[in-house]
Amino acid sequence: MTRLPQRRHGSARQTAAADWVLRILTMAALGVDAVIHFQLAPGYQAAAPDGIGEGNLFITEAVAAVIAALYVLLRGSRPAWLLALAVAAGGLAALLLYRYVDLPAFGPFPAMYEPVWYPEKTLTAWAEAAGVLAAAALTLHRQIPRPPRRGHSLRRRAR
Questions:
Q1: C-alpha count within 13 angstroms, C-beta hemisphere, residue 147
Q2: Which of the four, 2, 44, 48, 83, has the lowest number of CB atoms within 10 Å?
Q3: How many Cβ atoms are within 10 Å of 95's Cβ, its own excluded?
Q4: Does the pLDDT of residue 4 top 50, yes or no?
């Protein structure tokens, strides 16, 4: 039986270049997310100075975005992409949820309904959406070579 060579969709150099482009895009998107959340945090914390407050949640989001951005830049591994995807998707989900749904305060979390769009919020939504797309693209479609299984051969030598 004759085996045809497998067709490759791009050279290793093209794949590495695309990987770096997506890593930089993801890092930039998470960086925008972090900067805006750090800038807005003090104003939102004033509403609940003693509790968890939105300001503390904004700082938590910003720190998570910085950690995910650095992890993607430095490692670019599947766990890094999954972390970036989780941070960007979680931030975007929270932003959209509290923009369109009036949830009451629950437990230590304040009511955060804010039915308006303003420039920083819009920019954050776009950045998080871009981060989700870039991280999902590499998480779902990147082919990571698997090491060969030890002790097992896929081909048997003919004797």
A1: 3
A2: 2
A3: 20
A4: no
SS3 content of the chain, % helix, strand, coil (to 5): 65, 0, 35
Tokens describing residue 144: 């990571």
DSSP state of 23: H
CA nearest neighbour of 37 among 76, 86, 87: 87
| The two structure tokens encoding residue 71 | 């992890």
Residue-wise DSSP of 56-119: HHHHHHHHHHHHHHHHHHHT--HHHHHHHHHHHHHHHHHHHHHHH--PPPBTTBPP-------H
Looking at the predicted structure, is the pLDDT value of residue 131 above 70?
yes
Tell me which DSSP letter residue 158 carries.
P
65, 28 Cβ separation under 8 angstroms: no
Residue 94, both tokens: 């929270």
For residue 50, what pLDDT is reported? 65
CB 69 within 8 A of CB 27: yes
Q: What is the pLDDT of residues 31-48, one digit of tens each?
A: 999 999 999 998 888 766
Q: 39 and 120 in contact (C-beta within 8 Å)? A: yes
